[in-house]
Amino acid sequence: MNEPTEPTEPTESAERSDEILAELRALRQADAPTHGGHVLSYVYDSGLPELDELAAEAIRIMQPVNGLDPTTFPSVAALERDLVAFARRMLHGESSADGEVVGSVTSGGTESCLLAVKTARDVWRETHDTSVDSPRLLAPVTVHAAFHKAAHYFGLELDLVPVDAGGRVDTAELTSRFGDDVALVVVSAPSYPYATLDPVVDVAAAASVAGIACHVDACIGGWVLPWWGEELPAWDFAVPGVTSISADLHKFGYGPKGASVLLQRGRDRQRHQYFATKRWPGYPVVNPTMLGSKSAGALAAAWAITRRLGDGGFAELSASCRQSTDALVQLVGEIDGLRVVGSPVGPLFAVAADETAQPERRVDPHHLADRMRQLGWLLQQQPGLVQSNGVRLAHTTHLTITPVTESVLARLSVALVQAADDVRGVPAVDPAGLLGALPPVELDSGPLGSAEALGSAEAAGVLAGLGIGSAEDALPEQMAPLLALIEALPAPITERLLIELLARLVEPEVPSTG
Ligand SMILES: *Cc1c(COP(=O)(O)O)cnc(C)c1O
């Protein structure tokens, strides 16, 4: 921070504000571009600048409001009612035979997923033998990491069912794990890693018979699949047995970050989502979501955008996503040595090396992404995963397609073909060599053997040995080796190193460890 300055005149303080904002803009220069379609994850660009303007103005209007209390700020309740009504219609929850569909606007997909799990756990506790230590959360292994977090936070045991190489789960294998101790089964529409549309109808039907709650995670698909322009297998509240659905406004609802909807079937079950207490000397507390005081900015922005777009606008944007996705899936399928994973549904897909091609023709997806980055395109690298049945899911590269992709489709296609040509035949990184290059610590004994025992200085030492972690240059140019290492190292150690990496990014001063 700068030294405090003398009190300033109004005009001088206006100049000071300009300086501060200039500083902020300068900092933003280092960020990945949020617009223009060159970043194929994290950002969801409608390609319509007027939507960004509308959102910005809506945030400004709501800026001073506290979303904590809709009785003091009724505008918050009005906006939320409208959004829940829109989402409920969109997800066929309007005329639900087995209980009214109600819902909340949350701060994002993770919060929607957390609350779906918390609700199911509390309903389960009310109706089951509570001598069971921790109820199970059952899902295909492709379920979003937010459910790992939910199980961790709320004390459930995560029971993950393996999928095949195309990302498909076997319904019979999943439902064979049903039992009295299962508080929730989660399926995705579609899954994030490979865009698999899970067998919602069959799973929900079986869950309903077994008396198990069934959540459909439509965080990424919720605001685009309803207008996908193709008869998809049913996956929303039209399916009996689906008890809750999450759908992110800050993804294909095109809103700024901080908004998602969680809809639940049945008022009584949804009330378990809430927390209320009067057992303190302060104001009586009642919160439908996890936060207390909260911004209503993203809520207002999402509300304004859905009003502006309406069904017709969403249909147009979805059609654009659809066309670009179809074109890119076809292109990647035709690139020698590369394959699309499974049968993606929705505006996202993953690519893997074509293992049926000769090694010298294969395109490693992580080398591809590294080359794409040099060409100005950011694709998301996903490490491989060995499942509980020993079957390894290949490492892949993920692309999320948005309406803006249409405007860069030709250039993106050329870049993909070129990048594939440039890295074709380069073998995937062999993690064995990298593990040998780690600092002189034993992997199965000593500090690295026990993640808990790995102090932050030691963890930082390991990171430094790998050439990563300084504030200015957190990550290496080539990410493929790092991803290979993430895949190869035991999970607790990798997770400890990731924590250290991120923690040190925001620490004001990196203490010298030497
Ligand atoms: C994005 C996503 C989430 C988590 O949402 P955040 O908004 O990142 O917290 C959960 N599930 C799926 C399928 C997602 O795509």
Structure description:
By secondary structure, the protein is of the alpha/beta class. It has 3 domains: 62-305, Aspartate Aminotransferase, domain 2, CATH 3.40.640; 310-384 and 392-423, Aspartate Aminotransferase, domain 1 (Alpha-Beta Complex); 431-505, no CATH class. Helix content is 40%, strand content 13%. It has 15 helices and 15 strands. It has helices at 10-28, 49-62, 74-90, 109-127, 145-154, 171-175, 200-210, 267-270, 297-334, 365-374, 405-423, 431-437, 456-465, 480-488, 491-506, and strands at 101-106, 136-140, 157-161, 182-188, 213-217, 244-248, 260-265, 275-277, 285-287, 338-340, 348-353, 380-382, 385-386, 392-393, 396-400. The protein has a 7-stranded mixed beta sheet, with helices on both faces. It has a 4-stranded antiparallel beta sheet with strand order 10-11-15-12, with helices on one face. It has a two-stranded antiparallel sheet with strand order 8-9. Helix 7 (200-210) links the parallel strand 4 (182-188) and strand 5 (213-217). Helix 9 (297-334) packs across helix 11 (405-423), helix 10 (365-374) crosses helix 11 and helix 12 (431-437) crosses helix 14. The protein starts with 9 loop residues before the first helix and ends in an 8-residue tail after the last helix. The protein binds pyridoxal-5'-phosphate. Pyridoxal-5'-phosphate (PLP) binds at residues 108-110, 113, 144, 146, 188, 192, 217, 219-220, 248, 260.
